[in-house]
Amino acid sequence: MYRYDEIDQRLVDERVRQFRGQTERFLVGKLSEEEFRALRLRNGLYIQRYAPMLRIAIPYGLLSTRQLRKLAEITRRYDRGYGHFSTRQNMQLNWPKLEQVPDILAELATVQMHAIQTSGNSFRNITTDHFAGVARDEIIDSFVWCEIIRQWSTFHPEFSFLPRKFKFALNGARSDRAAVAVHDIGLHVVKDERGEIGFKVLVGGGLGRTPMIGVVIREFLPWRHLLTYVEAILRVYNRYGRRDNIHKARIKILVKERGADKFREEVEAEWAQIKDGPATLIPEEVERIAARFTRPAYEHLSDLDLDGIAVPGFGTWVKRNVHPHKVPGYAAVTLSLKKTGVPPGDVTAEQMDAVADLADRYSFGELRVSHEQNLVLADVRQSDLLTVWREARQLGLATPNLGLLTNIIACPGGDFCALANAKSIPVAEAIQRRFDDLDYLHDIGELDLNISGCMNACGHHHVGHIGILGVDKNGEEWYQIEVGGNQGEIRPGVKAALGKVIGPSFARAQVPDVVERLIECYLERRDSEAERFVDVVHRIGIEPFKERVYGSADQAAARRHRERAVA
Amino acid sequence: MAALIKRRRVVTESEPSPEQKVIRLEPTDDPATVADQLAGATRVEVNFPKFGDGRGFSIGRLLRERYGYKGELRAVGHITRDHLFFMESVGFDAFELREGEDPHEALAGFDDFSESYQASPLRPQPLFRRRVQ
Asked: Which of A267, A272, A326, B35 is the most exposed place for a label (fewest CB within 10 A)?
């Protein structure tokens, strides 16, 4: 856990004071609606369908139990006793009162938390690998680098009024668990032949209504130049990013309109002017930040043979929800927030307190929020796994579905969000109910299914192996289906990819049937159990899936003919 | 007449005299194009046409850091107290506030924050370098 120093704390306290003043000025009419909108958004405060929504930052997804208990307390005191973990590793409250938000921020500041730049046209919360610091394939500790960028991006005087939101992801391991290719800037760690650490720099990725995979503008950026290079990118974007049309204002549009090569040239030219300047990182700073992180005091243990524990259900959970740890005798445990019937990512105050107790007892008082909307206890002794599993099961947090079809990513959708065209949560639930047979789920194997309630794509549907998008047709909710998306190179093989739409959309009630047909098609076509759904889509294309869902071209023509005849 | 703050003081401006040389930059202007005129300028004005238009922040910083402009750098347009801390950091020292903004109350905006992580014209060394000095 990063511990604030006196200056970090002072800035957060000053932000609370500033926002309290802004809220008061708005309430007495000294700030216009438009002005206050820009100011409240950069404090995570939306005005939503039924009430305001407050998005609380969880920088790079890392939380202490003290912070989690504070979140629980806040949801009880100022909200309705539950919160929602988002795909940006943040927490959202759906029912706070506008006048009380400054008080909530003040409460958060007491545990080194805030809502700074969680929304609006600003540099957002940086996201990373939820197994940072414990993964066996890790090259650098992502958290340290994320914190360096967090500080650099907090209240940046030049970049506090960007054309649009700006999302940043950093991955410090060989596997990409941070989806770096679908961020405005994505950094992927690289170690060069001399052993020097640097980053591959991707720019212009993103989801939303114009989904794009980021382009590599630099294969290797030595770590010292991290901040000056990012500054060069941001300056080009701040000056030339479009501000005339909100839908064309993301950096991906600038990269596309300029062309990747021209954009790269501009960034490199800007960088040449500031390279080696004062913002060049120094080893002392990296060491200082690293030293402000608390580290678990691991015991000297050896790995256990967990297969030997013949308790029904336990083995399945270990297989799905337990991840190998770089320290012998430890493991990382994912607590699933994807129980059927519960909105994905939702957690009650009671669960938060209970998870905090679990983390205190079994994982050094820390936990992480994953971008797949689950919680991770990163440092559990293998000898404690059985107990943790039993306790997690009692809390409803042990659904053994990580990486499987029912581990659905979904946005809050039309049940809460003012932007949504359609509901997401009931669709997720209907699919989870349809696929409630665990053996069948495990047979299907790894499959990411993501649902967004509108084209803003908060549910990351473009990068789901199966992606579902809620659309509005004459005031009715319909759902478009994509296949073949992939969030990143989690395993060697299929790179980050955007899904392709299989055809016309469906009514909500049809969606589970369509998913079922897609799965049948996959099971028939896969060459082995190791070949995942997404691998098959990339090998054989979407046509066979389309045909399975809509019928063959002949059948489709016949159907159109019949429909015309009826019309 | 919009209220004016110069170097953190509320001032009233006398009528402009004809020999004043004022350069005015719009958000789309490239400060490089006026670099050779800066030495003779009475002041440079950078326009912020909308509350959320941040292009002028880069322009101001470039004028100070890259083109070495030392004279009055004035932010004009939709300026409120909520901009002042950031604008001062990137090198502005004069501010023509938007209609209706009380300049005396607005002065508090300069102290919204007492420190900054980043390097900027106001703080040429980033906090992490000042920490090790």
From this structure: A272
* Residue B133 near chain A (CB below 8 Å): no
Tell me the pLDDT tens digit for each residue of A185-210. Answer: 999 999 999 999 999 999 999 998 89
Residue B90 has its nearest CB partner, among A121, A158, A239, at: A158
Q: What is the ipTM of this complex?
A: 0.97
Angle, CA of A318, A1 and A135, to the nearest 5°? 35
* Structural fold of domain B4-8+17-132: TIM Barrel (3.20.20)
Is beta strand A185-191 parallel, antiparallel or unpaired with respect to A82-85?
unpaired
Asked whether residue A476 falls in the same domain as residue A556, the answer is yes
Cβ neighbors of A480 (< 8 A, separation 6 or more) are A468, A469, A471, A501, A505, A506
Place of tokens 């199966």: A466
By the CB < 8 Å criterion, does A532 face chain B? no
Number of separate domains in chain A = 4
Query: A124 lies in a domain?
Result: no
* CATH code of the domain containing A174: 3.30.413.10
Do A450 and A372 fall into the same domain? no
Q: Is the pLDDT of residue A444 over 60?
A: yes
Partner-chain contact A7 B127, CB within 8 Å: yes
- pLDDT tens by residue, A471-527: 999 889 999 999 999 998 887 767 899 999 999 999 999 999 999 999 999 999 999
Map residue A3 onto helix, strand or coil: coil
Which domain covers residue A554, as residue numbers?
A: 409-566
A-B C-beta contacts closer than 8 Å? 103
